[in-house]
């Protein structure tokens, strides 16, 4: 009997390469967070406007928990780009980031619940939004840094592309119990290899 081998056609990674290059240029020009978020939002919206560039291995859900795949980390760890993949019914714990971040939905939708932490440590709910395909949200300690994110679709995975102002998988952050009790964590990443963005022989 002949073995059947399925070969996945490589996707065009030039869009992602263009995005990380533009982001590096932006960060070289300014460290002003508001300017970074505004211009970074435009770049991310442009990246997620088309859904033909993310290699399928970085959009793969896991039956047990949401996945966080590193797509690129700046060589000086000034920023990282990550794909988040949510299976049906999956959500994060309530958590913070400690750095600026942008979240853009590539596929499906995400429910975002925001929280404010009182000086005494308690959490106050600040509302909830459904983020749809093509939409971008921002987080940072300066504006609003604590949230819980869930898959907005009950019957299919959702995928979002996140950008953070650090190597986010290595940042010591906190999750919070509903009463506001913090617990520190370092997320790491689900993948051991990252996409090859730099083979220009495949696509200019
Ligand atoms: Fe988050």
From TrEMBL:
Family membership: Belongs to the cysteine dioxygenase family.
Positions with a binding annotation for Fe cation: 95, 97, 147
Pfam families with a match to the protein in the record: CDO_I
Keyword hit for Iron: yes
Organism of provenance: Sphingobium yanoikuyae ATCC 51230
Protein name: Cysteine dioxygenase
A GO molecular-function descriptor: oxidoreductase activity, acting on single donors with incorporation of molecular oxygen, incorporation of two atoms of oxygen
Protein biosynthesis as UniProt keyword: no
Assigned keywords, A-Z: Dioxygenase, Iron, Metal-binding, Oxidoreductase
